[in-house]
Design brief:
alpha/beta; disordered C terminus; Mannitol-specific EII, Chain A; globular; 154 residues; 5 helices
């Protein structure tokens, strides 16, 4: 599974403005609706339910909110740089500025876990994250996210 299987250029937001985790998730749900036509409220509800189980703020300024959505026919991702960084109740207590949203069909099973692992591997790479933080153009962010796949797969 490649990052390009989850994202397209329209699914990358270079400058998401939010002041809280809830607002960031609301804005991401709005963007998912705009780009993919998915039900905004359903996306938001799935993400909030997942956050109730425990934060998806994984540390080092990174969050990977995710959930399974009824009616979805494929894995779907969205990436956002949040400026300024926000409190996401991350496990290390640090604010989050890089968010990779992942939605999966209810029947995804192992594919959902593989996609989460793939995104996690990508965002664990400090050099990749530094480049993502230093870029404010959506097309460049998309290129970094999808080109990093080759490096990570090796």
């Amino acid at each position: 599974m490649e990052i390009s299987d989850l994202l397209d250029e329209d699914s990358v937001i270079a400058d998401l403005k939010a002041t809280s985790k809830k607002q960031a998730l609301q804005k991401l749900a709005e963007e998912v609706h705009r780009v993919a036509g998915l039900d905004e409220r359903a996306v938001f509800d799935v993400l909030m339910e997942r956050e109730k189980l425990g934060t998806t703020g994984v540390g080092n300024g990174i969050a990977i909110p995710h959930g399974k959505l009824p009616g979805l026919d494929r894995l779907y991702g969205m990436f956002a740089r949040v400026t300024p960084a926000i409190d996401f109740q991350a496990i290390d207590g640090n604010p989050v500025d890089l968010i990779f949203l992942l939605l999966a069909p209810e029947s995804a099973g192992a594919d959902h876990l593989k996609a989460l692992a793939r995104v996690s591997r990508l965002l664990r790479d400090k050099t990749t994250c530094e480049k993502l933080r230093g870029t404010d153009e959506a097309a460049a962010l998309y290129g970094l996210l999808t080109n990093s796949t080759d490096v990570q797969a090796a």
